[in-house]
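Predict the structure of SCO family protein.
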Amino acid sequence: MKKILYLLVFVFIASGAFLLVNHKLKIFKYDFEATTVNGEVSMKSFDGKYKILYFGYVFCPDVCPTTLTLVSTALNELKINDSVEILFVTLDLKRDDIKSCDEFAKYFYPNSVCLRFSDSELDRVTKNYGAKYQIVDLNDSVMEYSVAHSSSIYLFDKKGRFIKEVSNLTYENVKSQIQNLVKNH
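Done. Here is the predicted structure for SCO family protein.
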């Protein structure tokens, strides 16, 4: 009987340790070190606000402006502007300087910040988030190249915990997912 009790105590402690380590690894997976117009930041720098992270670039002709408009419209309609920050990650390290990128993000939503990564950190972050992008050469174009990219938004609670990836970007779904984030987390 004592052996069973010891075994149960061991299993309980081991399970707790596993869950704690797994939780910490999950938070680390989505953490980052980036540059903003105000200096170096990490996910923790935005604690206290809900976060919506989006990967894009300033010269994007369609997907980025559409997605940022969709998200900002939902936030404005929900009247939760002060509690949410949009983290706009530039995928175009060659053309997007930090100032113009930040102005671009703020054009759509004032509580936005542009995050710029080093090449290696951008590769790590996009891999960890499951975001896809590719530089596409545009022969005979003034733009020289474009950036094909996925368009999901990533929702985080006020403590920087990943809540959900939203890939169905209909207005109704985005608004509902943001509302659920604020209501339940």
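The first helix runs from residue 2 to 30.
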